[in-house]
Design a protein that fits this description.
single chain; little secondary structure; two-stranded antiparallel sheet; two-stranded parallel ribbon; globular
């Protein structure tokens, strides 16, 4: 039931995001939505920032991602480690989200 979907491994901190190319067309366009749930906080801060920059460069209109609003960003994560990233604070400095939904209320 996933004929119209592509699942691939991608280093979003090092590579541009793929673009959508319609069947029988050479014209590419950005995807409307990027889903990046529970990913950025498992990257060292600078890799997470590079990933976010690649999201912005992709031209996607929306980003669905995880943030931790009650924490400060601390650059002590090793690859595959964990830190509680707050996308509203430096170095990310995201604007206020359109909507915020707690997905892990038992933890934070």
């Amino acid at each position: 039931h996933h004929r119209n979907k592509l699942f691939a491994r991608w280093d979003v901190s090092a590579c541009a995001l793929p673009r959508l190319v319609g069947t029988g067309s050479n014209v590419s366009m950005p995807f409307v939505l990027i889903v990046s749930r529970d990913m950025i906080h498992h990257m060292p801060l600078q890799l997470g920032l590079r990933a976010v920059r690649n999201f912005a460069r992709s031209g996607a209109r929306f980003l669905l991602t995880t943030t931790n609003e009650n924490f400060d960003n601390v650059d002590d994560a090793k690859p595959d480690g964990y830190y509680a990233n707050n996308l509203a604070k430096a170095p990310f400095n995201f604007p206020r989200p359109l909507k915020c939904k707690r997905s892990h209320p038992q933890k934070f």
